[in-house]
């Protein structure tokens, strides 16, 4: 491979190698976690989405989290519901920032998920977001902010996204369906 081809290959690698990992405990979490996936896609951030369960696939979790930094990931977004150990156990295996999304559970409406994720003992942090789709969306925005620290083009896309959001808010409410 000549120098030019090698450079091109490395640029391609940089662009396609996932920078953010989205993991979730179950297929049933996808309805929530797809909101993170959608936003990262909108910001053109290479990312991967996988089902990794702390309880049902513990070896898969250990393997995933232990290899994450070496594989080039910068941030992990982990969503789980119920006894939601996934973000905490993931954080135990990696020094990468882990953002936890409490998925709304059927029995306790996500309060169980929230408390399981947020109450990490000092020493192993998980950045905990809101319950449900808002949490998934904000986790993606936080991951974008982190990556934007060293990526001016991404920072510009994030600024533009936020400006658009601001512009979309009306000054006064209107009565609908009257
Ligand atoms: C957790 O249990 C998952 O994160 C999911 O939110 C919850 C229920 O999983 P399923 O029984 O729907 O597979 O591990």
TrEMBL record:
Binding site for substrate: 26, 29, 56
Signal peptide: none
InterPro entries noted in UniProt: PurE_ClassI, PurE_dom, PurE_prokaryotes
Molecular function per GO: 5-(carboxyamino)imidazole ribonucleotide mutase activity; phosphoribosylaminoimidazole carboxylase activity
Reactions that this protein is recorded to catalyse: 5-carboxyamino-1-(5-phospho-D-ribosyl)imidazole + H(+) = 5-amino-1-(5-phospho-D-ribosyl)imidazole-4-carboxylate
Superkingdom of the organism of origin: Bacteria
Pathway terms, separated by semicolons: Purine metabolism; IMP biosynthesis via de novo pathway; 5-amino-1-(5-phospho-D-ribosyl)imidazole-4-carboxylate from 5-amino-1-(5-phospho-D-ribosyl)imidazole (N5-CAIR route): step 2/2
E.C. code: 5.4.99.18
Domain PurE: 18-169
Principal EC category: isomerase
Gene3D superfamilies (UniProt xref): 3.40.50.1970
Pfam families linked to this entry: AIRC (PF00731)
Cited SUPFAM superfamilies: N5-CAIR mutase (phosphoribosylaminoimidazole carboxylase, PurE)
Keywords associated with the record: Isomerase, Lyase, Purine biosynthesis
Record-linked PANTHER family: PHOSPHORIBOSYLAMINOIMIDAZOLE CARBOXYLASE (PTHR23046:SF2), PHOSPHORIBOSYLAMINOIMIDAZOLE CARBOXYLASE CATALYTIC SUBUNIT (PTHR23046)
Family: Belongs to the AIR carboxylase family. Class I subfamily.
Free-text function comment from the UniProt entry: Catalyzes the conversion of N5-carboxyaminoimidazole ribonucleotide (N5-CAIR) to 4-carboxy-5-aminoimidazole ribonucleotide (CAIR).
Matching HAMAP family: PurE_classI
Protein name from the UniProt record: N5-carboxyaminoimidazole ribonucleotide mutase
Gene that specifies this protein: purE
């Amino acid at each position: 491979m000549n120098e030019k081809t090698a450079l091109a290959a490395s640029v391609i690698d940089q662009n396609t190698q996932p920078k953010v990992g989205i993991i979730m405990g179950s297929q049933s979490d996808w309805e929530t976690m797809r909101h993170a996936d959608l936003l990262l896609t909108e910001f053109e951030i290479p990312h991967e989405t996988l089902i990794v369960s702390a309880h049902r696939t513990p070896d898969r979790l250990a393997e995933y989290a232990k290899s994450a930094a070496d594989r080039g990931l910068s941030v992990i977004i982990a969503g789980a519901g119920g006894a939601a150990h996934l973000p905490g156990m993931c954080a135990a295996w990696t020094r990468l920032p882990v953002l936890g999304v409490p998925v709304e559970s059927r029995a306790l409406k996500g309060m169980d998920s929230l408390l399981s994720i947020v109450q990490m003992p000092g020493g192993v942090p998980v950045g905990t977001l809101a319950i449900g789709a808002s949490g998934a969306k904000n986790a993606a925005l936080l991951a974008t902010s982190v990556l934007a620290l060293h990526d001016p083009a991404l920072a510009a896309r994030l600024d533009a996204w936020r400006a658009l959001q601001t512009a979309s808010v009306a000054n006064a409410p209107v009565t609908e369906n009257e």
